[in-house]
From TrEMBL:
PROSITE patterns: S4. Residues 9-203 form the SHS2 domain. InterPro entries: ATPase_NBD, FtsA/MreB, SHS2_FtsA. GO terms for biological process: cell division. Coiled coil: none annotated. GO terms for molecular function: RNA binding. It comes from Kyrpidia spormannii. This is SHS2 domain-containing protein. The keyword Endoplasmic reticulum does not apply. Transmembrane segments: none annotated. Keywords: RNA-binding. SMART domains: FtsA (SM00842).
Length: 715
């Protein structure tokens, strides 16, 4: 801070069109302005706030300095501001896997700084050039957790977190060209600020900076924007359109050269605007009509400004303060309020009448275009931006404290990748249990160990010139490890009786199709199934009787053809009923397993009915009633050349032959007596039995065919 005994405070506002210089003496009740000088550039040595011709700008500064020195004496130190239009904004995004770890404050701050680092690299075009930019502020645009937007990451758990920020950067060349021009004019930069910060110092006291306000400096070629919130400046922006666009629109509407249009624009309050167009016609236009002709251009300018404010802020601010010569454009506050959806009284032009901290303000500085030079003087007195030099490890890092500097700022400026400081979380295990996807997180990686001048610190710890920062990267987390039994709910064993003995049936556990024990370590992307067996085949396997449904094959020949027969080795019953492998078992069921008898030919014939032809069934009418005789086998068998029957055992290699009995090949009348008792038809006085087939007399050996009509009677 400048004391009352020091030389006058010299503030210099180097603009695109003019250079404004003032000297002031600090007093108890504020600054007293002693002298003011304003000079215009004769050439385009300044473009958009950037010095393009250092010798010409230095010469203009030298002339302005000489005029002031005639009034106040020698001047050596000066306070200046870098133009807001020189600021660059860029978005950056950082994504980090957190694998279920809880996000602590340092991790969230690290994610923001990582996104800011990415924005600076994006702006520079490559990593090597990123150091050419100083970060002067940033704001968070959006947090996401597992792809879903979230208000605050602190304390949250998830698999993946991301942060998107919009950062504002000042190219080093801007500061370096300012210093070079001052040095050429025999001046030393004593204090540096940014034009938006200077204006905020002048118009927005610290007590108001908690509010979300937008300050818009509408100049000739650009409109510079600064946003405040939470007690500080959070974002800067610029629109490459301002007062000159209004002038050019008037020139086109009324056929005027630029200077004439500019003069007419400044006289918009007159009842009648007089000018001569490029065709030499003298015109007199009523003031309201002239103002109305500006409306489309004003609407276009307010649209661009509103769009930039919303992009930087994410929503309309609480209020908008307009400064700069272009802010006097008629209709601009009202149009901007409409574009932002704000009440008209929330967008207002601010002039130096609202600047506190000066005993008296000269008429030459009154108006909204005087805010910035006055703000530069106040910023130099209250919060001059100085260069801070800190050591990060063994390297020196130079920082401009446009805002409160932190260890995070120093690490970024030192070219340290913030991501590399945080240990990565251990790899997670992704498993599917019973069709449901589960994630088992690894242990979280640790954050960096940071020491500031030997004491523990965090990324948010403030730093000042001369500080020494030491950083040790965090450790990676351990990969996830667990057993299957840690992931599945407890399963009760099934208990059954096998041949009268109680047997427990444990749960079945499979991983990737292979049966494993419950204490088996889980592998990544495992497919896990766990269940109590219900089918009889599984139960018998688990109680040590997997052979209960085993079978053996017997190969033999049948009438010269090779055949095989599969015969069970055991007979299995469940609760006294023959059971199949897929039969469902319940707790307490009784299972009996007995050895099956040796196979015989009849077993094979039963399973192969197509190999058992016999006499077909017969249906005839007897005495007016239908009678059915079931079919029957009429074969004999030989095994290995010897007589055999259906009870003969089957053995591997046997040679079986069917032998047909032709004499029992047809149905005859006597076969009916199997189902009809002739004596039951006999009257008491009858003596002889008679048979007719289809009306013809027949004997007991007369053949029968399906559909025959038989009559049996006594005489």
């Amino acid at each position: 801070m400048v004391s009352e005994k020091s030389e006058p405070l010299f503030a210099l506002d180097i603009g695109t069109r003019t250079v404004v210089g003032l000297t002031a003496i600090p007093r108890t009740k504020g600054l007293t302005i002693k002298a003011v000088e304003i000079l215009e550039h004769q050439t385009r040595s300044m473009l958009d706030g950037q010095i393009h011709d250092i010798p010409r700008v230095a010469e203009l500064i030298r002339r302005l300095k000489a005029r002031l020195e005639k009034k106040v004496g020698p001047l050596r130190d000066v306070a200046v501001a870098a133009a807001g239009r020189a600021l660059k904004t860029c978005r950056g995004k950082a994504v980090r896997a957190v694998n279920g770890s809880r996000l602590e404050a340092d991790a969230v701050r690290g994610l923001e700084l990582e996104a800011l680092e990415q924005a600076r690299r994006e702006l520079a075009g490559d990593e090597e050039s990123a150091g050419r930019y100083h970060c002067v502020g940033y704001s968070v645009v959006e947090y996401k957790l597992d792809g879903t937007t979230i208000g605050n990451l602190l304390g949250q758990r998830g698999q993946e977190a991301s942060a998107e920020v919009i950062g504002t950067f000042l190219p080093k060349v801007v500061v370096e060209s300012l210093a070079a021009a001052l040095e050429a004019a025999d001046l030393q930069m004593r204090a540096l600020t940014l034009e938006p910060i200077a204006a905020i110092h002048a118009l927005i006291p610290a007590s108001m900076r908690k509010l979300n306000l937008a300050l818009v400096d509408v100049g000739a070629g650009t409109s510079d924007i600064a946003l405040t919130a939470e007690g500080t400046v959070v974002a800067y922006g610029m629109v490459p359109s301002a007062g000159d666009e209004i002038t050019e629109a008037l020139a086109e509407t009324w056929l005027l050269d630029f200077d004439t249009a500019e003069t007419a624009k400044r006289n918009w309050r007159d009842a009648e605007i007089r000018f001569t167009d490029v065709l030499g016609h003298s015109r007199k236009v009523p003031g309201p009509e002239f103002v109305q002709s500006m409306a489309p251009a004003v609407d276009g300018l307010s649209e661009l400004i509103a769009r930039e404010i919303l992009s930087l802020n994410g929503r309309p601010p609480a209020a908008v303060l307009l400064i700069g010569g272009g802010s006097l454009t008629p209709g601009l506050p009202e149009s901007l309020a409409r574009k932002l959806g704000l009440p008209q009284d929330r967008v207002a032009v601010r002039s130096v009448d609202h600047v506190a901290g000066f005993a008296r303000i000269p008429p030459r500085l009154k108006g909204p275009d005087g805010v910035t030079p006055l703000g530069i003087a106040l910023a130099a007195l209250e919060h001059p931006v100085q260069t801070a030099t800190v050591r990060v490890g063994s390297a020196e890092v130079h920082l401009f404290d446009f805002r409160d500097l932190t260890i995070g700022d120093a690490l970024i400026q030192a070219g340290i990748h913030i991501r590399s400081l945080f240990g990565r979380p251990g790899a997670a295990l992704t498993v599917t249990i019973g069709g449901e996807r589960r994630v088992v997180p690894g242990s979280p990686g640790s954050g960096p160990e940071i020491r500031l001048n030997g004491s523990p610190a965090t990324l948010d710890s403030p730093v000042t010139s001369g500080d020494h920062i030491e950083v040790r990267p965090g450790q990676n987390g351990k990969d996830a490890r667990c057993r299957i039994e840690d992931l599945i709910p407890p399963l009760q064993s099934l208990s059954v009786y096998v041949n009268g003995v109680s047997q427990p049936v444990p749960p079945r556990v499979f991983m990737n199709g292979h049966r494993v024990k419950p204490d088996t370590q889980v592998v990544d992307r495992a497919m896990i199934e766990a269940y109590i067996p219900e089918q009889l085949r599984d139960v018998l396997e688990d109680v040590g009787r997997p052979e209960a449904f085993s079978q053996r094959e017997i190969h033999f020949t049948w009438n010269g053809s090779s055949v095989q027969y599969v015969h069970p080795n055991w007979i299995v019953t469940l609760n006294g009923v023959a059971a199949e492998p897929g039969t469902v078992v319940a707790a307490g069921d009784r299972i009996e397993i007995v050895e099956a008898p040796p196979p015989v030919l009849a077993d094979w014939l039963v399973t192969n009915p197509e190999r058992s032809p016999g006499r077909p069934a017969l249906t005839v009418t007897v005495n007016g009633q239908l009678v059915r005789l079931d079919g029957e086998d009429y074969r004999a068998f030989r095994c290995n050349g010897r007589p055999a029957d259906p009870g003969t055992p089957l053995q591997d290699g046997d040679d079986w032959v069917e032998v047909w009995d032709e004499q029992v090949g047809e149905w005859i009348i006597s076969d009916l007596f199997r189902v009809i008792d002739p004596e039951g038809l006999r009257p008491a006085d009858a003596r002889s039995f008679h048979v007719e087939v289809n009306g013809a007399e027949a004997t007991f050996t007369t053949p029968l065919h399906t559909g025959d009509n038989v009559r049996l009677y006594w005489r």
